[in-house]
Amino acid sequence: MSCSNLDLINECDSFPYYQTDPDLYAASISTYFELRVRGHDYALGYILPSVAEIFRNLPNWELDDDDRILTLTGGSTAEERSELVMRTLWAMKGIGHFKVLEKWRDELYPVYGKNRELLFNVERCASPLLGVVTYGVHLTAFVKKDGELKIWTPRRAKTKQTYSGLLDNAVAGGIASGEGPFESLVRECGEEASLEEELVRSKAKACGTVTYFYIRNEKAGGETRLLQPECQYVYDLELPENVIPKPGDDEVEEFYLWTVGEVQDAMARGEFKPNCALVMLDFLIRHGVLTSENEQDYIEIVSRLHRRLEFPTL
Amino acid sequence: MSCSNLDLINECDSFPYYQTDPDLYAASISTYFELRVRGHDYALGYILPSVAEIFRNLPNWELDDDDRILTLTGGSTAEERSELVMRTLWAMKGIGHFKVLEKWRDELYPVYGKNRELLFNVERCASPLLGVVTYGVHLTAFVKKDGELKIWTPRRAKTKQTYSGLLDNAVAGGIASGEGPFESLVRECGEEASLEEELVRSKAKACGTVTYFYIRNEKAGGETRLLQPECQYVYDLELPENVIPKPGDDEVEEFYLWTVGEVQDAMARGEFKPNCALVMLDFLIRHGVLTSENEQDYIEIVSRLHRRLEFPTL
Question: Given A181, A211, A298, which is nearest B303 (Cβ)?
């Protein structure tokens, strides 16, 4: 198996585009339910019919089959809505409705409205059931040794709940509700790679975002076809040669210091976690490794690493 | 007047998005004609009705009012089609149909099909009449002086045909048919900034593309409302302190070496050529100057700098 870079994009940014295939897009959209909260007449996410069905006749929820909208009708503040969402999902977990709910993490993800206001928080593992945008931070750590770029590449522990054994970005994690991206990054750099706070604060450089719309497949675990639009804040960190990232928790098995060629070979073998491959592609483009001269899908890849999502973002 | 960074995006990426405003998008699209060539049943660009009307009953062209499609029916090779397009446009120029044709440059721009094959070439000044994607290169030259980033910023000559007197990127130009992006860059660096070929070849770094969909306004000159989807290949060039860019032709009045703050102030005053402001925003994002902490529209800006266009690209 050898994946092109566009194959890697297609795996992770798998939701159709209206611009290039309006018929396929319309056919897909027509099968989903929009998630809304009362008083905000726009979609916050897309929900599979099999998921929406479980909300039928539940108090505080309204399922409109004609317009295909699931609305959280209860609650008028973020706190009240969050409480109702939590209670509904916790009950569903108790009944054993969804496999994804078995991985309950007690971490809350924020869902924002059009004016960037917090509408509600949702338990992390439940966010793909609701199809809402989730946020994370991804850092690429690298060294320049005699002019050659080398990239620190961790392998995920075989015991991780998701994507076990695959390659990752040096540091990556979800942003919990109430946490800023940079603060989240500093925390994750300590937890995942044992990088000192002062080093991270002074040397990590924000370099944009990578956004995509993932349709979960069997690699993600739990129900497939769930919709997962994501926004990753990306950072670069050039490390001094004497700083060696070390797993700080049990999430990483080992860090490799790889040449660009080694990284690209592993990407072509499909060994990276799908969204980490995208962050790596963005890094290789920003650093002039991938160019219009050596990558025939350059323009499409750059655009699709920065998808404009249908839903409000922070 | 003070423009936010999102205002700068809105000025240049002014075509509506289906994702965020499907009604406005549909209303816009319904007023245009699609440009096609025979045997390729997809849009290569959008054309205003007032422009499409001029093609009515012309030999080698077919105007379909029901489906709103203008098709080049003549020619079966790129060479033949290019010749027909040229003859049609040259005749229109002779009759004095369009103001944009008065700025005839004798430069050809390529139009590609879905398999990246050249379908035809079109005179540069006529490309917005057809609404096809055009390609360019933009380079940001900078120095790091005592750890501070300074950016070489040229002011366009008051005598330039378009956007005279506005600020620009260090080097920028359109890519002619048959020329590769990097070769185009090397040539423009010599012509516009007197930068030595060897320096450019060894130090200029490809950093991606900036893509947007511009609806031409009065600043662009000629007919307004013409549609101009564009793809700019962006490059960074860190210059040694002793290399000073100098205007090599009459297109640039003067180069300033500005701090980031000076550049951002000029952007906020609307002093940059619109698409050069976008390239500068991309630079400031990739270099960690603009971050999610200091730019509230960060996620939207990053996405919109990398629009996925409706039409085939190279």
Answer: A211
| B residues 274-303 lying closer than 8 A (beta carbon) to A | 285-288, 290-293, 296, 298-300, 302-303
**Parallel, antiparallel or unpaired: strands A108-112 and A118-123:** antiparallel
Cα distances (angstroms) measured from residue B288 to each of A81, A182, A234, A304, B160: 36, 12, 10, 21, 33
Answer whether A231 sits within 8 Å of B299, measured CB to CB: yes
The answer to whether the Cβ–Cβ distance between A306 and B303 falls below 8 Å is yes
Cβ neighbours of A287 in B, within 8 Å: 205, 207
Confidence class for position A251, pLDDT limits 50, 70, 90:
confident
Check pLDDT > 90 for residue B289.
Answer: yes
Provide the pLDDT for residue A161. 76
Residue from A230, A53, A244 nearest A141 by CA: A244
- Residues in B touching A29 (Cβ below 8 Å): none
Q: Classify residue B163 as left (phi > 0), alpha (psi -120 to 50) or beta.
A: left
What is the rounded distance in angstroms from the CA atom of residue A272 to the CA atom of residue B166?
45
- Write phi, then psi, for B96 (nearest 5 degrees): 85, 30
B127-159 pLDDT, tens digit each: 999 999 999 999 999 999 888 999 999 999 998
Q: What is the C-alpha to C-alpha distance for residues A247 and A245, in angstroms, rounded to an integer?
A: 7
Q: Which domains does chain A have, with CATH numbers?
A: 5-12+134-304 (3.90.79.10), 32-130 (3.30.750.160)
> Is the pLDDT assigned to residue A227 strictly greater than 90?
yes
Q: Which are the contacts of B297, defined by CB distance < 8 A and separation ≥ 6? A: B4, B5, B6, B9
| Predicted confidence (pLDDT) per residue in A144-158, tens digit | 988 899 999 999 999
> Is the confidence at residue A188, as pLDDT, over 80?
yes
> CB atoms < 10 A from the CB of A242, how many?
6
Taking only residues 40 to 99 of chain B, the set having a beta carbon closer than 8 angstroms to any beta carbon of chain A reads none
DSSP classification of residue B292: T
